[in-house]
Amino acid sequence: MVAKINIGNSLYGALSYNGQKVNEGEGKLLATHKVFDTGDGKLDIARCMEDFKRYMPEQVRCENPIAHISLNPHPDDKPNDAELMNMAQEYLEKLGYGNQPYVVFKHEDIDRHHLHIVTLNVDEKGKKLNDSYLHRRSKRATNALEKKYGLHPSGNSRQRLEQGVLRKVDVSVGDVKRQVGNVLKALSENYRFQSLGEYRALLSLYNITVEEARGEVHGRQYRGFVYSATDDAGTKTGNPLKASRFGKHAGYEAFDKWCAASRTEIKEKELTGRTKAVILATLRQASGKDELVRLLKSKGIDIVLRETDTGRIYGATFIDHNTGCVLNGSRMGKELSANALQEWVIAAGSPIPTGIGTTAPQQHTEEQEPFVPFTRQDHESGEDSVTGGMFDLSVASGTDPEEEAFRRKMQRKKKKKKGRGI
User: Fold this and answer.
1) Which letter does DSSP use for residue 382 in this model?
2) Residue 223 sits in which domain range?
3) Mean pLDDT for the chain?
């Protein structure tokens, strides 16, 4: 069981997100404590807000008084609703939230049914609850629940991948939307990335790609994401899926916020250093590209290379499943930039075929990606609108400077050759 704890200040945001799932038939209201329950399986958000606020003074001494927790059993675990409710209550008791007002929701919108809990992070005097070693205590609590209820052990991010929590999208299986949704949800909870290019590299491991769409409707600017399933060669298959079909966690606004949060966390926790050290040590050990890919994978790191149609590397992204970080090579220094890797491959005498660990040669640049139009009806209905969702960003902010420089250099060469021909 994997727990994710978010501490924030928007009670309405947490309740409305979960309440919408329940009221639209994509979730259940499993339990409440010190909060009114209508008994009809629906959530009265306004009444719920009033009950929570009775336990929270007007002058709250804590900047972030709301705790929004998700509990995620392994996909192969199938506990019933009564067991899930007991797990949530026991988990809260172990963390010191047992006497707080709370609401427990079960989400059923993806194959991996999971729990969401909304509670208060402050006592009735507005003082913050003890949060010392909170994540460590949370891990001990989930370990205890796994043993008591016979659940699969969660392990670390790499172990969860090996256990099949995340699987490649397979169009032949059907229900592509659900498959893509499962991956997007898991990635948004477990990985840190700082650009659209890094996010796209991460998605490519699971046969998904994302493109940005932006435009203007009646003077209003919008940006959005469109996801597509791909085959193992990176070719799009099936119909594109707008981000709004997966919820806010898959749209632009959430992506933008996640990039900013990831940037801060990676810097503060100095997460880049560990990944860089492992890659440099592996480069000294490997005798060629294929061995480099294999050795890195054995250490929990995937590498995604972007190449021209002549096989020259112009971009490299490393996905460290141990730390949950996705990093362009150039972020870790010139010695891991695309040019440095290209020189290393040549020196090692290794061919650069496309295949495992690489993306297929690109026949067009980012600027030539097809624009996906949105009608006024789509935009206003909200059903498929790409605005306001969690994961939509502009191509400019997701571009690797080194890749852009290489692309411009290649364009200049083509123009010179064309001029000489004339």
Assistant:
1) -
2) 176-268+368-399
3) 80
Residues 245 and 147 in one domain: no
Q: Are 307 and 351 in contact (CB under 8 A)?
A: no
Specify the DSSP class assigned to residue 354.
Answer: S
What mean pLDDT is predicted for residues 16-29? 85
Cβ-based neighbours of 99, under 8 Å, separated by 6 or more: none
- Residue partners of 69: CB distance under 8 A and separation at least 6: 3, 4, 5, 6, 91, 116, 117, 119
Q: How far apart are CA 166 and CA 178, in angstroms?
A: 13
346 lies in some domain: no
Taking the alpha carbons of 77, 80, 83, 85 in that order, is the dihedral positive or negative?
A: positive
Domain count along the chain:
2
Q: Where is pLDDT greater, at 361 or 270?
A: 270
Asked, for residue 417, whether it belongs to a domain, the answer is: no
75 burial (CB, 10 Å; 0-12 / 13-18 / 19+) is buried
Residue where a domain stops, chosen among 154, 185, 205: 154
Burial of 137 per CB tally in 10 Å (0-12, 13-18, 19+): middle
**CATH (domain of 139):** 3.30.930.30
Q: Are residues 258 and 137 in the same domain?
A: no
Q: Is residue 335 part of a domain?
A: no
Query: In this predicted model, what pLDDT tens digit does every residue of 23-50 receive, in sequence order?
Result: 888 888 998 999 888 777 788 888 899 9
Check whether residue 64 and residue 94 sit in a common domain: yes
* pLDDT of 341 over the 80 cut: yes
pTM (2 d.p.) = 0.55
**150/13 same-domain check:** yes
Q: Tokens for 381?
A: 């209905």
pLDDT digits (tens, 9 = 90+) for 135-185: 889 999 999 999 999 988 876 554 544 444 578 999 988 889 988 988 998
